[in-house]
Amino acid sequence: MRHIMLSVLAAFLPLGVGACEDRQAPPVPSPDGRPAARVPPPSAQPAEPSDDEIVDEIRRLVKEDKSLSTAAQQCDIAVVRGVVTLSGAVDTRAESVSIENKASSVAGVVRVENALVPKSGG
């Protein structure tokens, strides 16, 4: 009898161990039949950068661009929930557009409001 109980226990033991494994659901195919990419669980997805991190990254990109005037490199950058507001004076419209493009390229930016004022039209 003891031998039978051990055999039954041995037969079900792998099922119990398998049930404890962390398994992901298989990917759901896309409507066109292609397999969909697996999406990592929320805890494995990178967190959105904070507003302060966004400001720091935009400031870094602006400071690295040596073609920008000192005035442009000192423009004001504010971020609230991913919305960037650029303000201050720049030498040209081209600088204003360049800084706006840099801000738009940063991860976590939702929208850029460009209130930079060019001193000249160039």
What features would you describe in this structure?
- There is one protein chain.
- A hairpin with a 2-residue loop joins strand 1 and strand 2.
- The protein contains 4 helices and 3 strands; from the N terminus they run H-H-H-E-E-H-E.
- A 3-stranded mixed sheet has the order 1-2-3.
- With 122 residues, it is an alpha+beta fold.
- The longest helix has 18 residues.
- The chain is elongated, with a radius of gyration of 28 Å.
- The model has no long low-confidence stretch (mean pLDDT 81).
- It has a domain of 68 residues: Histidine-containing Protein, Chain: A.
Structure described in brief:
By secondary structure, the chain is α+β, with helices and mostly antiparallel strands.
Layout of strands and helices, then pairs:
Layout: H1 2-19, H2 51-64, H3 70-73, E1 76-80, E2 83-90, H4 93-104, E3 111-118
Parallel strand pairs: 2-3
Antiparallel strand pairs: 1-2
- Output mean pLDDT: 81
Class from secondary-structure proportions: alpha+beta
Which value, in Å, is the CA radius of gyration?
28 Å
Order of helices and strands: HHHEEHE
Helix content: 25-40%
Stated plainly, the CATH topology of the domain at 51-118 is called Histidine-containing Protein, Chain: A
Low-confidence stretches: none
CATH architecture of the domain at 51-118: 2-Layer Sandwich
Q: What percent strand? A: 15-25%
Shape summary: elongated
The rounded distance between the terminal residues' Cα atoms is 95 Å
* Main pleated sheet: 3 strands, mixed
